Amino acid sequence: xxxxxxxxxxxxxxxxxxxxxxxxxxxxxxxxxxxxxxxxxxxxxxxxxxxxxxxxxxxxxxxxxxxxxxxx
Length: 72
Description:
The protein is of the alpha+beta class. The protein contains two helices and four strands. The chain has helices spanning about 50, 60; strands at about 5-10, 15-20, 30, 40. A two-stranded antiparallel sheet has the order 1-2. Strands 3-4 form a two-stranded antiparallel ribbon. The termini are far apart.
């Protein structure tokens, strides 16, 4: 069963927010509601949820090989 809600934590200010993750795409940018900082995925991660949330994005949870990983 795929988890669609994740708690994302801003690395700049430490604020957390519960968000619903998209099921059909990866989210490359996220604006922190507390400090306004814009989060981007860490190198090697496909999205901000894989980098900063308590659960990875739905495509990664489902182990899809066609996840939107950034290709070099």
